[in-house]
Write a structure and sequence with these properties.
It is a single chain. The protein has helices spanning about 20-30, 60-80, 90-95, 95-105, 120-130, 180, 190-200, 240-250, 270-280, 295-300, 305-320, 340-350, 380-405; strands at about 10-15, 35-40, 45-50, 85-90, 110, 135, 160-165, 165, 185, 205-210, 220, 240, 255-260, 285, 325-330, 355-360, 410-415, 420-425, 430-435, 445-455, 455-460. With about 475 residues, the protein is of the alpha/beta class. The protein has three domains: about 10-135, Rossmann fold, CATH 3.40.50; about 145-330, pyruvate-formate lyase- activating enzyme (Alpha-Beta Horseshoe); about 410-475, Nucleic acid-binding proteins (OB fold (Dihydrolipoamide Acetyltransferase, E2P), Beta Barrel), CATH 2.40.50.140. A hairpin with a 5-residue loop joins strand 18 and strand 19. Helix 12 runs parallel beside helix 13 (about 380-405).
């Protein structure tokens, strides 16, 4: 294989979280100077990367199933005298590195989420050795220091972009594999985040979502020359918290919307809460995983917040930004969860009220403490509890969507709809909004009068703007 041969085709299949989407984009950036151009399918690709996620149940088996399909393509390519490099990246690669090579010996490279900046080295090693290359170390150098600084393609940037600012986790929730696959917490220097945000804005991006496993525990080095008096109160005058970072990003020309995910309740601080009320670019929507409403279950999960802590946070956020909408994550059927524990979750959900939420049955993750706990809950009980919880959450989401009818929301149009001439965008609350025959195209932020609400989307029209309808800036309580 000649690494610098021009015209090679690259296909990346991304599983799971937004951070994997970001990582896949950076892999493409790294490989572009080596002559690899992205294609939409694996059929004719010279290199295929599966960027995997280990969070959901049976994640690894889905990867092996996909590898079986790709093996046929790889074999067919070899019969024609060609070659397809097949790589497994991401969290499944980190967690099951050697097992992947045992079960799928036709795989050429296996590397974890902290090693993809070494892709050129891995390709060179593959060329030299002629056998599978494995790299699942946690390198001492931050991978972000080795990513291309000017690889953005203005034509491919889109209107919204993910931007990783923090990675890794030190919390060790007993159900979670992230500390073992992503490593310890690391925050990118604020100067790098600001520079990348500027490049995104110059490429036409209007909305950025700041990513991190515990993004609100961001504590990046301040830019050189910063006035120390304005630094975050994190115990060091040489770091910024997420609130300060967001204030600076809000000053970048072209960036009109800022979001961040995923947050850890115990890491919400006064500076960040205040930013929700002070920075107009920061959208009035926050994903803040609760996981359970029972203090007993939260303690068993090794979560560092209580139900009362969550109540207090919700109140402070709504005081800072009355129209904020809260989203959350929930796990039902955690080992030892009693009927009373589950009722506590239902009670807290009904008290807080969420505009959107994700809920799942607990599933065992090998190597995590919860997998070996006593009191594993039967699947039938988990299913019953999940159905009951989703009934409440779905009703809350639909009620919020219906409350938007008659309001005017600013919607960032970003993709075509199913009908001819239709476009779809996102409201400040992450709702999909459909509009027929819009007067502006993708990339525009338009004020839409909401005319209909469904379980998972809204419909809007532009004609009512002329009637003087008020925009979302009324800040009515969500």
């Amino acid at each position: 294989m000649k690494n610098r041969q021009l015209g090679q085709k690259l296909y990346i299949k991304t599983y799971g979280c937004q951070m994997n989407v970001y990582d896949s984009g950076r892999m493409a950036d790294i490989l572009a100077p080596l002559g690899y151009a992205l294609v939409d399918g694996p059929e004719d690709a010279d290199m295929v990367i599966l960027n995997t996620c280990h969070i959901r149940e049976k994640a690894a088996e889905k990867v092996y199933s996909e590898l079986g399909r790709l093996k046929r393509l790889k074999t067919a390519r070899e019969k024609q005298g060609g070659r397809m490099i097949l790589a497994v990246a991401g969290c499944v690669a980190q967690a099951e590195s050697e097992e992947i090579l045992d079960r799928a010996p036709f795989v050429d490279m296996v590397f974890g989420p902290q090693a993809y900046h070494r892709l050129p080295e891995l390709l060179a090693a593959l060329q030299r050795a002629g056998k599978a290359v494995l790299n699942t170390d946690f390198p001492p150098e931050p991978k972000f220091d080795h990513l291309p600084k000017d690889a953005l393609d203005p034509g491919a940037a889109g209107t919204s972009a993910f931007l990783t600012v923090q990675e890794g986790c030190d919390k060790f929730c007993t159900f979670c594999v992230v500390p073992y696959t992503r490593g310890a917490e690391y925050s990118r220097p604020a100067e790098d985040v600001i520079a990348e945000s500027g490049r995104l804005a110059a490429a036409g991006v209007r909305e950025i979502t700041l990513l991190g496993q515990n993004v609100n525990n961001y504590h990046g080095a301040e830019p050189p020359g910063t006035t120390r008096a304005g630094s975050s109160g994190t115990g060091s005058l040489e770091t910024w918290g997420l609130g300060r970072l967001i204030r600076e990003l809000g000053k970048i020309d072209g960036i009109e919307r800022i979001r961040y995910t995923t947050s850890y309740p115990a890491d919400m601080n006064d500076e960040l809460i205040a930013a929700h009320g002070d920075v107009p670019e920061l959208m009035p929507f926050l994903h803040l995983p609760m996981q359970s409403g029972s203090d007993t279950v939260l303690k068993a999960m090794n979560r560092r917040h209580t139900a009362d802590d969550y109540r207090r946070l919700a109140g402070l956020l709504r005081e800072a930004r009355p129209d904020i909408g809260l989203s959350s994550d929930f796990i039902v059927g955690f080992p030892g969860e009693t009927d009373a524990d589950f009722d506590a979750t239902l009670g807290l959900v009904e008290e807080i009220v969420f505009v959107q939420a994700y809920s799942f049955k607990y599933s065992q993750r090998p190597g995590t403490p919860a997998a070996a706990m006593d009191g594993q809950i039967p699947e039938t009980v988990k299913s019953e509890r999940l159905e009951a919880l989703r009934d409440v959450l779905d009703a809350q989401q639909l009620a919020f969507n219906r409350s938007c009818v008659g309001r005017v929301l600013p919607v960032l149009l970003d993709r075509p709809g199913r009908k001819p001439g239709q476009l779809v965008g996102r409201s400040p609350y992450m709702q999909a909004v459909h509009v027929d025959d819009p007067i502006e195209g993708p990339g525009a932020i338009v004020r839409l009068a909401i005319t209909a609400a469904h379980a998972n989307s809204l419909k809007g029209g532009v004609e009512a703007q002329e009637a003087g309808a008020e925009p979302v800036e009324e800040r009515a309580t969500a």
